[in-house]
């Protein structure tokens, strides 16, 4: 399987550079793999697509303001993009610098705080913030929201709210679980009125989610690792939902990866730890009956995941329709609701 098998043409002007004024104003392309068909709708139509007793599972991770500006000892500028926090004051990060610093080098933040380079592993650096205050406090003071590289503008004050789901609870992500950005209080209330349940996993999205595949053969790619927590309460909620005939729908690919990782033999169980699951066409899903997701980059692992759910040819045809219909793409873009062949 080649990464070029998952290519599609996307005009740059369709990449959403900012959110719509209202979260739930987005469009939604409904793809039914059983009928190999799709139709245009809006995210506010989601309650009508669900039944009382269905369960929507969200990712409640909270995005850290993980992008920092610093200076090297030589006076050159450096940009720090935290990938994950690995200790109380230590992080794994990418560095945007003209020349990579050596172990022991010190970067200085805007307020004079020191960041020491402890080592390097591939594209990532191990850094220690030599400060007394909690690291999350420092990030709130000095950090910027880490907008994806395809958003070409600088982050502004509005992004602190809009590049965050309304139900975000557990800080640790450096990229938003973007399917959840469409939900606001009125939409959540409409779902409750419909009798739709909600549950939560946590997957702290890492900066590796934006790394492109470097090998043409898809099977040679190694996924980045991310931390997940699938709790006992959700496992029980899913069990009761299925016993009552309800469907389980993932809000975002991060939820799919969390649930499937917690069910390696097909039986869901509580799990907290790392996952590097790579879902490709041919994968047999055991934990979801549908997926709400955004549109994904060409040749990306996430496009491969949704192709595994609905079929590559159907998914690429639906993407071509989305381009022709001028949908908005990627993090601040529109949504897609996918009903796989096995959906009830």
Automatic annotation (TrEMBL):
> Do you know which InterPro entries this protein is assigned to?
QueA, QueA_dom1, QueA_dom2, QueA_sf
One Gene Ontology cellular component term attached to this UniProt record is: cytoplasm
EC class, as a word, reads: transferase
E.C. numbers:
2.4.99.17
Q: Name the UniProt key words of this record, in alphabetical order.
A: Cytoplasm, Isomerase, Queuosine biosynthesis, S-adenosyl-L-methionine, Transferase
Q: Name one Pfam family in it.
A: Queuosine_synth
Keyword DNA-binding tagged: no
Q: Which GO terms describe its biological process?
A: tRNA queuosine(34) biosynthetic process
Main localization is cytoplasm
As one GO molecular function, the record gives: S-adenosylmethionine:tRNA ribosyltransferase-isomerase activity
Catalytic reactions of this protein: 7-aminomethyl-7-carbaguanosine(34) in tRNA + S-adenosyl-L-methionine = epoxyqueuosine(34) in tRNA + adenine + L-methionine + 2 H(+)
| Pathway it works in | tRNA modification; tRNA-queuosine biosynthesis
Which cellular compartments is it found in?
A: Cytoplasm
UniProt subunit comment: Monomer.
Family the entry assigns: Belongs to the QueA family.
HAMAP family given for it? QueA (MF_00113)
Instruction: Explain the purpose of this protein.
Output: Transfers and isomerizes the ribose moiety from AdoMet to the 7-aminomethyl group of 7-deazaguanine (preQ1-tRNA) to give epoxyqueuosine (oQ-tRNA).
Q: Can you say what this protein is called? A: S-adenosylmethionine:tRNA ribosyltransferase-isomerase
- Tell me which species this is from: Metallibacterium scheffleri
Gene from which the chain derives: queA
């Amino acid at each position: 399987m080649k990464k070029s098998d998952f290519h599609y043409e996307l005009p740059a002007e369709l990449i959403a550079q900012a959110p719509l004024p209202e979260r739930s104003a987005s469009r939604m392309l409904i793809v039914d793999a059983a009928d190999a068909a799709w139709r245009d709708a809006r995210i506010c139509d989601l309650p009508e697509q669900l039944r009382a007793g269905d369960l929507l599972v969200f990712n409640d991770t909270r995005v850290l303001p993980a992008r920092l500006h610093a200076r090297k000892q030589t006076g050159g500028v450096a940009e720090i993009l935290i990938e994950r926090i690995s200790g109380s004051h230590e992080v794994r990060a990418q560095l945007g610098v003209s020349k990579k610093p050596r172990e022991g080098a010190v970067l200085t933040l805007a307020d004079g705080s020191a960041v020491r380079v402890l080592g390097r592993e591939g594209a990532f650096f191990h850094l220690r913030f030599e400060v007394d205050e909690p690291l999350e406090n420092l990030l709130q003071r000095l950090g910027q929201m880490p907008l994806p590289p395809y958003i070409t503008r600088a982050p502004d004050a509005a992004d602190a709210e809009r590049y965050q789901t309304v139900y975000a609870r557990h800080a640790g992500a450096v990229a938003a679980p973007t399917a959840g950005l469409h939900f606001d209080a009125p939409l959540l209330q409409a779902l409750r009125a419909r009798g739709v349940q909600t549950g939560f996993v946590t997957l702290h999205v890492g900066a590796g989610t934006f790394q492109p595949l470097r090998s043409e053969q898809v099977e040679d790619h190694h996924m980045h690792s991310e931390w997940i927590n699938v709790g006992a309460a959700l496992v029980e909620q899913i069990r009761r939902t299925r016993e009552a005939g309800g469907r389980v729908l993932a809000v975002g690919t991060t939820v799919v990866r969390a649930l499937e990782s917690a069910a390696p033999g097909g039986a869901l169980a509580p799990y907290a730890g790392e996952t590097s699951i790579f879902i490709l066409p041919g994968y047999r899903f055991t934990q979801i009956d549908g997926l709400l997701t955004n549109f994904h980059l060409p040749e990306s692992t996430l496009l491969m995941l949704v192709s595994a759910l609905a079929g590559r040819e159907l998914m690429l045809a639906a993407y071509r329709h989305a381009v022709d219909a001028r949908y908005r793409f990627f993090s601040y873009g529109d949504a897609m609701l996918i009903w796989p062949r096995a959906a009830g």
